[in-house]
TrEMBL record:
It comes from Blepharisma stoltei. One of its GO terms (molecular function) is metal ion binding. This is Nudix hydrolase domain-containing protein. GO terms for biological process: NAD+ catabolic process; NADP+ catabolic process. Belongs to the Nudix hydrolase family. Residues 92-248 form the Nudix hydrolase domain. It holds the Pfam family NUDIX. PROSITE patterns: NUDIX, NUDIX_BOX.
Amino acid sequence: MNHSADPYVYLSYENRDVLTGQCLLDLLGFPELNRTALIGLKHSIANQRCHLSSGFQQQEEDAFYRLPLLHSLTCPARAYFREFNSVFQLNRKIKLAGCAVIMSADSKVLLTRRTETLSLFPKNWVFPGGRLEMGESLEYCAIREAAEETGIDFEISESHFKYRGTTVAVTPLFIYESSFPCIGPPKAQHLIVFFTINLNFSSNEIGLSLQRSEVDYAVWISKEDYENINRGIDFTMPGLHYTHENAHISSHQLLGIAPNQIGEGVAEGHKHALDMIYQQNH
């Protein structure tokens, strides 16, 4: 795959590309907001650009979303600018990604653990997702990545998404500016659009086959599981290893924002998705 040709973020009102090292909330005119702002996002498949704005008008020929944009509470791009009054800017465009929050009929969501050998966010628990490829819609990207990483047998085309013959609803949830590393000058940034994907099957009816190069464990968690994890209760959940062996996932593995005390935890943007889905207030 030639990632140099991947779609990238484009700020329409400034008529220029956004490069790694710039805080998107600051650039969009929200320097006073610590966490979130409602913005417009228009993805043009024709020219493979994603336009961001604090006041977009919808255009029928392009995919348009009006969604909350969030970033880390310790956004490294903003932190660097405020400390040194300059932008730590790399000549590297911010890439786009889609992320799939898969929910089963028994109201559980699927989390996967990123393989420990990955250079970005190893051993973080995340929702399936990955980078947008040329010619894709963001919805298609989220479903494709979910199918690749989890082995869920989606029927995918640009016009529809199905699972076992049933149409799958793909609903945008929010946008997240992801930076790596979490502390210090950012070396990589992605703009991730999270989508909820509701399946009409219980979690134990949905077959999984994990992509070893990307993820090594998976677990379905319920609202009750998530609440108990946040309370620090020690318990285990049935999960799956990439070898297809059953696994016991400890609540401590999912406790807090990654990296936690045991080097795991949920990636910050993905934890916010859990909070939104299960309506947690922290």
